[in-house]
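Q: What does the predicted 3D structure of Amidase domain-containing protein look like?
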Amino acid sequence: MIIPNSLKLVNHTKTKLCILIGIGLAGAFLLAEARRRRRRRRRRVSAPKHDFGAFVERFELLPFPPQHHQSLSALTFAINDIFDVKGYVTGFGNPDWKKTHKESESTALVLTSLLMNGATCVGKTVMDELSFGISGENKHYGTPTNPLMLSCIPGGSSSGSAVAVAAGLVDFAVGTDTTGGVRIPAAFCGILACRPSHGVVSTIGVLPNAQSLDTVGWFACDSSVLHRVGHALLKLNSVEPKRTRHIMFADDLFQFSKVPAQKTVYVIGKAIENLSGYQSPKHMNLSQYIASNVPSIKGFCEPLTSQQSESQVLKALSSVMFSLQGYEFQTNHEEWFKSVKPRLGHDAYDRVIAAINTTHDNIKALYKVRNEMRGAFQSLLRDGGLLVIPTVADNPLKLNTGKAHSSEFHDRDFALSSIASISGCCQVAIPLRYHNDCCVSVSFISAHGADKFLLDTVLDMYTTIQEQVSVTSYALPVPDTNGDLDISELLKDNQ
């Protein structure tokens, strides 16, 4: 059969038309699919994961046989994957660590104490690998979702524990704080946290990062719970309350941070008006105090102009902290790292490599700075002294922020956390209120061994602080000063 040319032309045109329609449909489909993928990616950022991604392992450890008047009865808690639990492998935030270690034969003493006081453990939480870092981002187990700001990092290294408390998944949680691992995520997630005095809470059954700095800390949303957990872990005896208490604001550190200083001074000043035993708050330059009373720190400061000297002291202090951490981490884990060659995320890898490859020739000078810091702060905070500083310097970074943008952020926050880490003092982080879409967090620091005094003070003041925060607008234009502020004048202006 012979097909007419006109019909051939019609068929050919139809074929072209079908091809064009097919291409158009395929393009529309691909465009729609790309849009769907973008929406899914946005949802992954904005929608919390199951349990906010806080846990690496779920289980239930019930309290020991009930006793009368157990202080933590009916409370649930979680622990970082750095604490030994009999019959479980402690993961240290890294799957290669978990693969190369056996099940624990005993349970960490801190966990035993909590169970004996009536609390129930419901699982282990995500942490920064090998307890390095402050972002809370974990390459292997994912990043727990910050319930306060879904698009921002939760902070680390005890990220999962902080998120579990902030999301209301548990009543309290336990983590470790070496260079800020409890205090920083507490600030970013808007909750309370305590880093106790160095050495007062047992670290038996806790994987070490750096023993001279390691502490076991805890998180809570309620000041009463924070207080009760502290008494269970610290085994504190009743002591006579201090007759006088004096509060000092580190003005230079508030200027160093984005925390609204004047309003914070006002809120805390109002909170102590009705409490007995408090002297009028004082103001000081903490960097100058450290420079004058810790002479060995000068060996770690670069010669700079007087305008730069204050920030240089803090930078030197954090440098000492990292060098101590690196030396002790190297001693603890160099053999394992070199034999296993574990897969690590970029942040953890850079810090571990720096620790492993550094030759620590000045170790005696590092310990000398630590000893002088402890003496200087015991003198500063004796007889009921409380130092008030910002918990962190900046708002939390967005998730997946590049390394170039996060370096300065890390340096500034570590500078603040190095104060308690090196001095060994106890510190409680206290959330105040939103400011520029973030939670403001300040910290009270007290002398080494004054943990009960600090926890009692926070319990006494917390409700009043929150009441003052609720009636004090953080948006009010209060002019900044250079730190020579008389609290009575500020109160007079705002009454």
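A (community wiki): The structure tokens above were generated from the sequence. Residues 5-11, 39-46, 475-495 have pLDDT under 50 and may be disordered. Residues 5-46 form the longest helix (42 residues).
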